[in-house]
Amino acid sequence: MRQIIKNKQYDEERALYNLKNADILNCIFAGKADGESVLKEARDVNLKECKFSLRYPLWHVRKFSMDQVTMDELTRAAIWYACDATISDSVLGGIKAVRECSNISLKNCKINSQEFGWKSQGITLTDTEITSEYLFLDSKDVTLNNVKMKGKYSFQYMENLEISDSILDTKDAFWHSKNVTVRNSVVKGEYLGWFSEGLTLVNCKIIGTQPLCYCKNLKLVNCTMEDTDLAFEYSEVDADIHSHVLSIKNPKSGKIIVDSLGEEIWDDPVMECNGEIVLRENTNVIKNKKMECAI
């Protein structure tokens, strides 16, 4: 039989430590005792309409759900080393909210958490707004659908990331990432995607200076660009861009098709550059220049 805990307040250390098979309803985790780790090592627990204002509440928790739960800015490092969870219609407000977790699905949430999602696997965000810096650093198998994201330095050192129908207002995104696909999204930021491998953007709008340099196996399918200059430097790229590009510099290899181009730059390369740049209106190759390695 499941235990029901309702309309209670807890503030002591490890208040519900190792709790099992329980539904926690309309409870408050806050108070003068300021205790940590209130639900550490819990198993098979459901939280609904609860409020948290204590540190480290859900560490090493397995099989849990959160519905209409609020974690304020004092709920630091809320969910670590946890797995198999669903979080819906909730607010996560503390720094480092999720770390080294697996198989967690978040839907219709509002998240304001710096360093969210580090070193995790199998995380899904759907219909969610998130503000974070260094979002999902060094994580794997992550999916974002209809997400509004604002922050800096996101998706670095990631593997197997899928993003669709989202708006990403970020900076230095996707650095050193592998196997990332972004579809039907707006990606705004400076220095996007440097040193990535297997980054694919489909039906996306890309905004910002010096994007997509030093990339391997980079693909752009039916994309547009805005305020993008010095793009594709030293990248292996296959791009179909249906807009104007301010400037393209020293593409290493592949073909870049654009509607129009402000400036092509072949300047003092440090490696051999054989990239093609093609203007769509006349389909003539305007540059296929082989550059010798600089010494």
Shape: elongated
The major sheet is characterized as: 8 strands, parallel, barrel
Q: Numbering strands along the chain, what is their spatial order in the largest sheet? A: 17-18-20-22-24-23-21-19
Radius of gyration: 23 Å
Describe the structure.
The chain is 0% helix and 51% strand. It has 295 residues and is an all-beta fold. The strands form 2 sheets. The protein has an 8-stranded parallel beta barrel. The chain has a 3-stranded parallel β-sheet with strand order 7-10-13, with no helix packed on it. A hairpin with a 5-residue loop joins strand 27 and strand 28. The model is unreliable at 283-295 (pLDDT under 50).
Task: Provide tags for this entry.
single chain; 295 residues; eight-stranded parallel β-barrel; three-stranded parallel sheet; 28 strands; disordered C terminus
What can be said about this structure in brief?
With 295 residues, this protein is an all-beta fold. Helix content is 0%, strand content 51%.
